[in-house]
Amino acid sequence: MNNLHVWLACIAYPVTAAVYIESALRKRCRTTTIGPSLSPELLERLQQLNMKQTPNELDITTNTNPNMEQIIADTDPACYPDLYLWVETGGGYYPLNLDALPCPKVCYLIDSHLFLDFHLEWAKQFDMVFVAQMEYLDDFRRQGTRAHWLPLGCDPEVHRRFDVPKIHPVGFVGGVKSGSRRETLLAKMASQIPLHYERCYLEDMARVFSQSQIVFNEALKNDLNMRVFEAMSTGTLLLTDMARNSGQDELFKDGEDYAVYRDNIVCDVARFYLDNVELREQIAARGQRLVHNAHTYDHRVEDLLAVALGGKPDTFSAKELRERSLAVVPAIDADIPASICISSARRSFVIPVLDMSPASEYNILTLLTDLEDIEGDVIVVFNGQEVAEHLKDHPRITRYAIMKQNIGVARAWNLGLEIAVTPTVFVLNADLHVERQAIDALEQALYELPAAACVGPQGSFVEYALARDYIHFDKGAFNRPLEVDAVSGFFFVIKLQHFNEKIIRFENGFTPCYFEEWDLGLQIKRAGLKNYIVPTSAYDHHWSGTIRALREINFYEKAETAGEIMMRNRRLFLTKWRGITCRENNRQLLESGFLRYITDTTQNLVDAGCFGDAREWLENVAQRCQVNAEIVAIRRFIDVMASKAEKLDMTITEGTVV
Questions:
Q1: Which class in CATH covers the domain with range 337-590?
Q2: More exposed terminus of the chain, fewer Cβ within 10 Å: N or C?
């Protein structure tokens, strides 16, 4: 596209879609504007309507009916266009002898809802037609014209949000004809709600939109007009009617991306959103993201060129544009977790408590002491009444729940997540000693590492086929953040919004314990998110303290040994995830990140010239996992590089001796 040359045929009219299309074209290719200057009469009229912009001179100035055959004859062949694009700008600009152009000829028709008969006739001059109003697309196709839908859009550089107070409850910018439906609706609103009306353009228009809490729009003969996209682009709530057969109902959703009124309740709808400020701004912000994702003139020009010259069979449909606009935009209910974070604290600590951890020097009391100087809500789930009676009124406990019986770790964690009302939630074993530095390190990583959903100080790569760890990273065993398969469950932090958006919860089937961490790690991976461990030494924990102290573990009405629970839950884990992998045809789901870790570690050693360490590392790996073709290739690569390094050392040594 860098070598592409486009002739953009339009009138030098600074407030039409052609201006935005020109800007988008010039970002992609060589662009020459060609057409007549704005007539003095039209210029004077526009200036009376508060158009402050001065028309730019076009690259090639013509009359309103130029003979393209003569223009081509007078043009150096090196300057011939690869595409001729005529954009409707009003003012009676209709070139003659378009067949003389040595390139494809396309036009962009904007006001077919007003001039359909003429548009149908004018379209016959072109190889391809792009129509802004979807309702009339079939009219062009029925007469044999190759026609495509290309809705209007916005230019975020022009239609931007100004940092100004929202002084107008309702704002409107546009023309109003006497006796029109628009005039009636505006008068009805003005009688009940303060309404600001102004006729202005470009940045002045965007400023008025930015000063308004709501921007009013009315479709003329069901046109999907420029104001829809321009108002949404400024981040102000758009209040509009539904333009039938325009694609509007597929592109945007009422109450999610903008607000739709019927004539008889237009004031009621406006008042509703004026009274509900947070909801209004939430919807306006979402609408802004949608139009910036898929409805700018950069997007329109890209689609037009792809169809006109790139072989793309058709422009995007309304459904496809909707999908593109939603890219990286959270689902509409994704804002719920943020909106229900009603605690003044930014984090919560969820602590299941069964007993006083008799096999450890740490217990719930020492942990509560650790948390005295660390901000956050403390949520304790007592898995029995005895300890609860002694500790429920502890001053450091913010909220608690008391179970008559042990409901297990997974259910206790889930209950804690339901009670939590902060964006960040730590899960802590009661037999943990923790310092502020560890809390800060995990929390910082949660918000800085890419797609992090769960972060802890220990974790592992898992050999899922045999339900065992390839490698477990204990305290002091690593010195940089690592993406792992699973984070150890005695101490970790999660981002509650991710868990609520993706419906991630701990598997209750693993009651009372074991395999929750691996299961959680796979849920997070399946959701497109990541598990990380980060190095910190500001904590202490002894594994299986409570379990070692019990011959049997009581839960609900059952009692089982740790071995029995382990065997049962291993079978459940493998059955669950093999079934999910099969149903979803996602073989990568149960592939560990261990091979990637091997490759990265080996590469770092090789880069440092530590070939012996690299060989030793791979020998250790070979004892932990099946040696596949990729590992064999890495070992061969190291042997070759080591051999070259040895020869180089020998040459240098011999040269030194000489």
A1: alpha beta
A2: C
